[in-house]
Design brief:
The complex is a heterodimer of chains A (1053) and B (599).
Chain A lengths: L1 H28 L8 E8 L10 E4 L4 E4 L5 E6 L4 E5 L6 E4 L8 E3 L12 E4 L2 E4 L7 E4 L1 H4 L18 E5 L21 E5 L5 E4 L2 E2 L12 E7 L2 H7 L7 E6 L8 E13 L8 H14 L8 H7 L14 H5 L3 E14 L3 E13 L9 E14 L4 E17 L22 H11 L8 E2 L9 E4 L9 H7 L1 E19 L7 E20 L3 E9 L5 E9 L8 E23 L2 E16 L6 E14 L3 E12 L8 E12 L4 H4 L4 E15 L11 E5 L24 E6 L8 E14 L4 E18 L16 E22 L2 E18 L19 E4 L2 E4 L22 E3 L14 E5 L4 E11 L2 E11 L2 E3 L16 H5 L24 E3 L2 E12 L12 E15 L19 E11 L1
Parallel strand pairs in A: 1-7, 13-16, 23-26
Antiparallel strand pairs in A: 1-4, 2-3, 2-5, 5-6, 8-9, 10-15, 11-12, 13-14, 15-16, 17-18, 17-50, 18-19, 19-20, 20-21, 21-24, 22-23, 24-25, 25-28, 26-27, 28-29, 29-30, 30-31, 31-32, 32-33, 33-36, 34-35, 36-37, 37-38, 38-39, 39-44, 40-43, 41-42, 44-45, 45-48, 46-47, 48-49, 49-50
Chain B lengths: L1 H22 L21 H13 L11 H4 L5 E3 L5 H6 L11 H18 L13 H30 L1 E2 L5 E2 L21 H18 L28 H16 L9 H24 L19 E3 L4 E4 L1 H6 L10 E3 L1 H6 L26 H4 L2 E2 L4 E3 L6 E4 L21 E2 L17 E3 L4 E2 H16 L10 H10 L13 H8 L2 H15 L6 H8 L9 E9 L5 E11 L11 H6 L14
Organism (chain B): Persicitalea jodogahamensis
Subcellular location (chain B): Cell outer membrane
Protein name (chain B): Carbohydrate-binding protein
Chain lengths: 1053, 599
């Protein structure tokens, strides 16, 4: 399938790029261009004819960046067909063809208010507003911001760019999994996005769509608006309550025909991959642990030196380095795409074809990779002066190939009853086995035995190690998972000026459908316990004891499937009018959305009516408001609909007389918003109804088989009725009561821009199941009702500061953003408590409870002074905890808040430098002010027969408690002994690019050629060294994070 | 012209929007769905039946859980291999509230009680029409009504056995008695009822059940062949009349025991003996008539219809959970539990004499020679052989000597150098290509239970050789000693020790019965409660349990050290704790004594 599709395509695009590349030196030698460049001396003036110094000039879509001199003059040479863009803050941008300037070289710029131009339009749900008018904080990102990050997951490229948006990469797994959001089959969120404590939703072309189901490339995106404040969120309705990442895809623009070809190839290398003990080290550590627990050691020196030979095939002394045998350190990364937009006044088009490819790090087994093709096209047609029709299509195909790991649908677990569940992320099972299995547990395999054709794999007599990781990888079969996305939107714009000038209507219908099917084989291998021994004559022999048989399938089968379907229809009426100092822009929208998904019994439906508008007075005072009448299917009739108002104020204070003379302040706007918005996370349907389940499956009563001594008939219908839920008919919307205040400023000749936002959001009446108030004695612990109960406040400050300037030919911009955040629980369904420190009320939501570490016990006798009840006996060097309540014993009642697990501060730093044709972009991010509990397997191991991590090996009796064979529970409970400062700083993204000067035209008509080298996740500075502080489970229980470097070229035609 | 056209379209638009806005009201109504709320319940007879049927699902169906062999891990019979197991931690006195293994049973019991209370309230279940034919409908509704009472008795008895005890206020307390479905809108702060009241409620529910239930679910007790579609054998596994009598016997037995009977009220013993004898008589008359039940037949753990059963869980088909759990790693098991030296020492010799008796012929150098046949069918010891059933194939030889493959140490071997043989199927070998798995069930009440209960109670009332019940305690125990063993071994044909100890008087015979009960019921989750009800202090509970240390000599003989401590039991209370989170939810609850950190 993929070989017929992706590879030829990939090759074709690559070939095209190569051809173009080869043309360049050729055309440079060819000194007979058809069109001669022209010399132009340009003067830029305002409407009164006064020259404008320092106006920015861009020629040929970025071939040439320059500024006018003190007299507003700039001289240059360019091709007549090049575009020239002249802009200066406070003036309307001018775009012209160089050819038209030959005769009249004066460019007159119209004075405009700051942030009130067409390029200052902020795309928002259903309507766009000019930035100046808005009372909230919005960040708008474009292709050029997003394409620098070498990744095939758009979420990564948002890293560090937006104040208040935290991007957390949790694992580096290959490709994207559509079921991430649902969390089915142990799929976890690969990249987390958080703003103001919540995860924003993605809206792609007005349809709420999981980014994992429609993975976009940066080149197909026109704009990404990050909406955090209440008024902007309310414009969408309750679905936007957690924040919105509002994406518009690229459309054609009249008279701007652009074709870009972009080809990028790179490699991703494992960044931090926590290590585990080798065979000899394992034997030594195991001996030590057994000795410490009063057991006889198992391995003598001779055996250890045999293990040190690291022979994975030795029957007597096997020592296997699974990671080295099974996993590579790097995987490939590539993306190639072709984007074209253009059109005339009547018809505009956009077309996009993109390919993304990513390898995997399995060394063995069937091929493992991810390939994706995105095809997007849209056409806007003007039917007449009043009517415009927009048609969008999207087709996406992604193919994930991999060996199965450990999955066999025919395999039954130990008790002979249950099937092992499918694991959609096979690497997670693989890494679990690779790290658990002692390297000396068994030799990996032998290609002989009772069946010469089928190799068999060894497993351990110890039931904990009944899987041979290599056998699992090589002989559990494979799968091809094909995900298909189709989307189609239709927009019907209608100018109703015949009824009322300024009135417009927009009708939108959008669908998208995702489906993925995993086809492959789930097989199994022959496994034996191999015990080396001696025959009677003294020869070496191996006794085999079979654990399971192999399964070889003749045909492929469907292993898994998933679908989702989304549907949105809305009707928007908007009206604009200016008169005198007044300006009004209002809109009314009726919106209806429906989502059907695999595994969700009732389609999720919401509808709402939104009235929104801005009134501006003198372009200085602004009032913005939203009224939202929203309904959802989740609640009982009468509780479904609610009205939510929100409003904001903006004041451009810099235009007031008392500030207009302050030269340092070019622009200063104060703004504030407040409002209420409903929220419900598409709850399980019918929480308002009682719900009883009836079931008649299961074993029957009656005789085991016929003709028993007491009778014959079995009773096959054992009805079983269970209360699944006690309904709460009063359940209704959670109310978000939000307040924010902020400022935007341009200072010192517009060299410095500042943004600051303070927010204070209250989640009131969160829909919560009350676990802790209804006693078990009521008998409904499986059916506890849901109430609007919990109440949490989130608050914080988001800031950004940017300084841009130029020194000679050096253009630079340096700045950053920083967010300080916190939260407080006001009401919570918590267990009753005996001591005040046990309460979570008043604490942040990320509070971490545990014992307070007091140092290690100095002597065995000291352990008896205040007994710690986690073990029968403790010893010197075990962890000592504080008896918080002073009752003479340390137990769970002594747990108190000892830290918090999300950063109080996160920040991004950026540096952009341009020098002649070179430009460099560096983005760094950091987090500070939080604790990471080192409680995952890499830190908590060392007892029993599992392997030992490097952490345990290297930190014995220090950061890692004493090594014992029987687990000392006391040392492995949540306590601040295991908390570490989580602060870190990462260089997340670097791009170094060179724009090849194309002085003369060339055969291929290339207007721009940019060569770049990019890097992602290049450097990490942190106190935690062994694991990645961004995700301490990476490389331990999930995929490691990768450092990616790539090179590529971008051609613009 | 154009203007008219556009106006028309505009008008159409506004109409369209208007229509959408006004017609959208129903859009959010639920789609047709099968949701059944609390009132719908009564319109479906299968759901009404299900209120009773569900409760059987709450019962354990094997011995591999905290109500079975793991519970013995907190007694002196068993050592659990995992030191992190919550039962181990209970036993050694290091149980944090967060690992409470009993909370789930408190929860389960009340869920079952809620379910049957719904059925019983206002006789709503009884008044449901289950079948069209009035006679057959009567069979069904009487049975269900009886089962509902019996289930309520059963789960209340579970609550009482687990959580009943002396509260911190010094009173003997049971559990909060709940006889109506709880309305969570009202007060839900319950208090525990006095122990005696709980006992009386359980007995009353047993009596109510007895009135509605057939005496037993047997086809031969249903004379009309057409009635067998709704009565008789097909309800094997559900409560019947004789089972409620057996429950009463067990409740009285506990209530009569020293810990719960400070005044030594002999009528309690008498009632226990009376009801146990009633059940025994039922087995030896009614069930024996059909030639199903024979007193000397060995227990067959793999026959869910074993005639010695009085009440059993439903079976789990083709199951190897116990084999996995009991066998050591080398035999492809988990070695999850081990047998204590104390239990090994409790088995008498082949001649019936305990090993402490000079007449026994016990040789500490060869501790496993010439023991009671029951020993060989219960325990795998060093150098024991697992012989495949009906063959002479040795599947496995246990190597428990120091550095032997089954020796204590790895978490897949027992910590005591003994593994459990009782209840495993000797035809199962994990190395076979086709593994022969047999069904397993939990036999809640068997013939042996009733014999032991009777013997214990009768001995208290009238000594070993009385005649009040038509059967003496000595004769009852004789039934068990003479019975065959599940591995084919024969019981005692001559039993001089039984006569000897019976003649030694009531006190000696009490200890003898207690030891017999220990041997007969080991690994079934009984010992934990038995040692508590027999004692009035903590001293018998807090003993060190021991393992065997075995060294293989150069001449392939073995040296045994049978006095190696392996774990010390450390209970601060003879009672189990009420769930800590339930304590926090209901301020009226009083915690059992000794659980200060859980109050």
């Amino acid at each position: 399938m993929q070989s017929t599709l992706t590879y030829p395509l990939r090759g074709l695009v690559a070939l095209l790029v190569l051809c173009l590349w080869a043309q360049i030196p050729a055309s440079a030698q060819n000194k007979t261009p058809k069109v001669q460049p022209v010399n132009i001396s340009l003067q830029v003036t305002d409407e009164q004819g006064n020259p404008i110094p320092n106006a920015a000039i861009v020629v040929g879509e970025g071939n040439l960046h320059a500024e006018t001199n003190e007299s507003g003059i700039f001289s240059f040479q360019a091709m007549p067909e090049n575009f020239i863009t002249v802009s200066s803050y406070g003036y309307t941008k001018s775009v012209a063809l160089v050819g038209t300037l030959v005769n009249n070289s004066v460019v007159e710029l119209k004075k405009s208010k700051l942030f009130n131009n067409t390029e200052d339009e902020v795309p928002l749900p259903f309507m766009s507003f000019k930035r100046r008018k808005l009372s909230g904080a919005y960040s708008v990102l474009r292709t050029s911001d997003l394409e620098k990050y070498p990744t095939n997951d758009l979420r990564n490229s948002l890293t560090g760019l937006v104040p208040g948006l935290e991007v957390i990469e949790r694992d580096g797994s290959t490709g994207l999994n559509a079921e991430e959001e649902l969390g089915n089959f142990r799929v976890t969120e690969k990249i987390g996005l958080a703003t103001r404590g919540r995860s924003p939703i993605f809206i792609i072309d007005d349809v709420p769509t999981d980014i994992t189901e429609m993975p976009l490339d940066p080149q197909e995106i026109e704009s990404v608006t990050i909406v955090k404040d209440i008024v902007g969120k309310a414009m969408l309705g309750p679905r936007g309550a957690d924040g919105i990442i509002y994406i518009k895809t690229k459309r054609g623009k009249a008279n701007e025909r652009v074709l870009t070809v972009n080809a990028e190839q790179g490699v991703s290398q494992v960044d931090r991959f926590p290590g585990w003990a080798s065979g000899a080290e394992y034997a030594t550590l195991n001996n030590q642990a057994r000795t410490n627990s009063g057991l006889t050691p198992l391995y003598d020196d001779a055996a250890i030196s045999e293990y040190a030979k690291n022979d994975p095939y030795s029957f007597k002394y096997p020592s296997v380095d699974y990671r080295q045998l099974m996993l590579k350190d790097s995987k490939s990364f590539s993306r190639v795409n072709l984007a074209s937009t253009g059109g005339n006044e009547t018809v505009q088009y956009g077309a996009y074809l993109g390919y993304n490819g990513e390898g995997d790090i399995f060394k063995l087994g069937k091929i493992s990779d991810y390939n994706r093709i995105n095809v997007r096209s849209n056409i806007d047609v003007k039917i007449n002066d009043l009517i415009k029709v927009k048609v969008d299509f999207f087709g996406g195909l992604n193919i994930r190939r991999s060996p199965n790991y450990g999955y066999n649908p025919n395999f039954t677990s130990d008790d002979g009853n249950t099937n092992t569940a499918l694991d959609l992320v096979e690497f997670n099972s693989a890494i679990a086995d690779i790290t658990d299995t002692p390297p000396i547990a068994f030799p990996i395999y032998a290609a002989f035995g009772d069946n010469a054709d089928a190799p068999w794999y060894a497993v351990s007599p110890n039931t904990a190690f009944r899987d041979n990781p290599i056998g699992n990888l090589v002989h559990n079969g494979y799968y091809n998972e094909t995900g298909r996305t189709g989307a189609s939107n239709l927009t019907f714009d209608y100018d109703l000026k015949e009824i009322l000038p300024g009135l417009k209507s927009k009708t939108f219908v959008g669908f998208n459908i995702f489906n993925s099917v995993r086809i492959g084989k789930a097989e199994n291998y022959i496994a034996y316990i191999a015990t080396p021994g001696k025959t009677a004559s003294g020869a070496d022999t191996v006794t085999l004891s079979k654990v399971h048989d192999g399964t070889d399938l003749a045909e492929q089968a469907k292993l898994h499937d998933y679908y989702s379907q989304r549907f949105v229809v809305y009707e928007n009426l908007s009206y604009e009018k200016q008169w005198g100092n007044h300006d009004v822009q209002v809109g009314a929208t009726y919106y209806l959305g429906k989502i059907s998904k695999n595994g969700i019994e009732e389609p999720q439906r919401q509808q709402n009516a939104v009235m929104t508008g801005v009134y501006s007075l003198k372009d200085k005072y602004f009032v913005q408001g939203v009224l939202n009448y929203a309904g959802t299917y989740s609640f009982a009739k009468g509780k479904r609909y609610a009205m939510f108002p929100a409003a904001g104020l903006g004041w451009v204070i810099s235009e007031e007389s008392f500030l207009s003379d302050v030269k340092a302040i070019n622009y200063l706007k104060l703004r504030a918003e407040a409002g209420i918005l409903g929220y419900e996370s598409f709850l399980t349907p019918f929480l308002y109804l009682d719900r009883w389940g009836v079931n008649s499956s299961g074993s029957a009563f009656g005789p085991y088989s016929t003709n028993q001594w007491f009778g014959t008939n079995t009773d096959n219908s054992v009805y079983r009725t269970t209360a699944n839920r006690i309904g709460n008919p009063d359940l209704t919307w959670e109310k978000r009561k939000e307040f924010s205040i902020g400022l935007d400023a341009l200072l010192f000749n517009r060299k410095i821009s500042v943004e600051a936002n303070y927010y204070n959001n209250l989640r009131d009446g969160m829909v919560s199941q009350l676990f802790n108030t209804v006693p078990y004695t009521a008998g409904i612990s499986n059916a506890r009702p849901w109430f609007n109960y919990n109440k949490v406040r989130y608050y914080g400050l988001e800031t950004s500061l940017q300084y841009s300037d130029k020194i000679g030919a050096l253009r630079f911009s340096v700045g950053g953003n920083a967010t300080v955040q916190n939260s407080k629980i006001l009401k919570y369904d918590q267990a009753n408590f005996r001591f005040d420190y046990q309460s979570i009320i008043g604490q942040p939501i990320d509070t971490y409870f545990g014992q307070t570490y007091m140092g290690k016990f100095a002597s065995d006798a000291e352990t008896l002074v205040v007994p710690q009840i986690y073990d029968e006996t403790l010893q010197k060097d075990d962890l000592k905890y504080e008896d918080k309540n002073g009752d003479g014993v340390v137990d769970d009642n002594d747990r108190s808040p000892i830290g918090h697990t999300t950063p109080r501060l996160f920040y991004g730093l950026n540096l952009r430098v341009g020098y002649r044709n070179f430009d460099l972009t560096v983005i760094g991010t950091g987090r500070a002010g939080y604790d990471i509990p080192l409680t995952n397997k890499y830190f908590w191991n060392g007892w029993g027969d599992n392997n030992y991590s490097n952490f345990t090996k290297d930190n014995m009796d220090g950061e890692s408690p004493r090594l014992t064979y029987y687990k000392v529970n006391n040392n492995f409970v949540a306590s601040d002994f295991w908390l570490r400062n989580g602060s870190f700083f990462k260089i997340q993204n670097v791009e170094l690019a060179y724009t090849v000067p194309l002085g003369a035209g060339n055969l291929m008509g290339i207007r721009g050629l940019r060569i770049y080298a990019r890097g992602a996740n290049l450097l990490t500075l942190s106190k935690i060294k062994d694991v990645d502080p961004e995700s301490i489970n990476s490389g331990v229980t999930v995929n490691p994070l990768f450092r990616t470097v790539s090179t590529g070229i971008k051609l613009t035609f | 012209m154009k203007l008219k056209y556009t106006s028309a379209v505009s008008t159409a638009f506004i109409l369209l929007i208007g229509t959408l806005l006004t017609s959208c009201v129903d859009y959010l109504d639920p789609y047709p769905n099968g949701n059944r709320d609390s009132e719908d319940l009564w319109e479906y007879q299968d759901m009404v039946q299900g209120l009773v049927g569900q409760c059987y699902d709450y019962m354990p169906r094997n011995y591999n859980d905290n109500e079975g062999v793991y519970l013995d891990g907190a007694s002196d019979d068993v050592v659990i291999t995992s030191t992190t197991n919550s039962m181990t931690r209970l036993a050694v006195g290091s149980l944090p509230t967060s690992l409470d293994p009993f909370r789930t049973y408190w929860d389960r019991d009340y869920r079952a009680i809620y379910s049957v209370n719904l059925f019983l309230k206002d006789r709503r279940g009884y008044n449901t029409r289950f079948l069209v034919d009035p006679h057959l409908d009567g069979l069904v509704k009487n049975r269900l009504q009886g089962e509902a009472f019996a289930l309520r008795a059963w789960f209340q008895w579970d609550l009482l056995q687990k959580f009943g005890g002396k509260g911190m206020n010094g009173e003997m307390l049971g559990y909060p008695i709940v006889l109506e479905p709880v309305d969570i809108g009202k007060e839900v702060n319950f208090a525990r009822s006095p122990y005696d009241e709980c006992v009386k409620q359980i007995l009353a529910d047993c009596d109510s059940a007895y009135k509605y239930l057939p005496i037993a679910h047997r086809d031969f007790l249903v004379p009309n062949i057409n009635d067998r579609a709704y009565a008789g054998a097909r309800y094997w596994g559900r409560f019947d009349g004789i089972t409620t009598r057996a429950i009463k016997a067990q409740v009285y037995l506990t209530w009569a025991s020293p810990r719960f009977n400070p005044g030594n009220d002999l009528t309690r013993w008498d009632m226990a003996a009376k009801y146990a004898k009633e059940v025994m008589d039922f087995k030896t008359t009614t069930d024996a008539v059909s030639k199903g039940f024979v007193k000397t037949t060995a227990v067959n753990w793999f026959d869910p219809n074993f005639p010695g059963i009085i009440f059993s869980s439903r079976y789990q088909n083709a199951n190897d959970a116990l084999e996995r759990m009991f066998y050591p790693g080398g035999f492809q098991g988990n070695g999850a539990v081990g047998v204590t030296q104390e239990l090994v020492d409790a088995f008498p010799m082949k001649n019936g004499y305990p090993i402490t008796d000079p007449k026994s012929g016990y040789d500490p150098a060869k501790p496993y020679d010439n023991r009671d046949p029951r020993f060989y069918s219960t325990i795998f010891y060093n150098n024991a052989k697992a012989v495949k059933i009906n063959t002479s194939n040795v599947m496995y030889t246990f190597e428990n000597w120091l550095n032997g493959k089954d020796a204590a140490g790895p978490p897949v071997n027992s910590r005591t150098n003994y593994h459990i043989k009782k209840m495993v199927f000797m035809g199962l070998n994990f190395s076979d290509n086709a593994i022969n798995r047999q069904p397993h069930a939990k036999f809640f009440i068997r013939w042996s239970h009733m014999v032991l209960a009777f013997a214990e109670a009768a001995n208290q009332v009238e000594g070993p050789n009385g005649s009040k019940y038509g059967l003496s305690a000595k004769e009852a125990i004789g039934y068990l000693r003479a019975r065959n063993n599940s591995d084919g071994g024969k019981g005692f044909t001559t039993d001089p020790y039984l006569t000897e100890v019976a003649n030694a008087g009531q006190a000696a015979f009490t200890n003898f019965i207690r030891n017999e009960r220990r041997l007969e019921l080991c690994f079934e989750g009984q010992r934990f409660y038995d040692i508590r009800r027999w004692s009035t202090s903590l001293e018998p509970l807090n003993k060190t349990v021991h393992m065997a240390r075995i060294v293989k000599n150069d001449d392939n003989s073995f040296s045994y050290d049978l006095n190696v401590p392996v774990e010390t039991r450390s209970f601060k209370s003879a009672y189990l704790p009420l769930p800590y989170d339930e304590m926090l939810r209901m301020s009226n609850l009083v915690q059992n004594e000794g659980w200060d950190a859980w109050k």
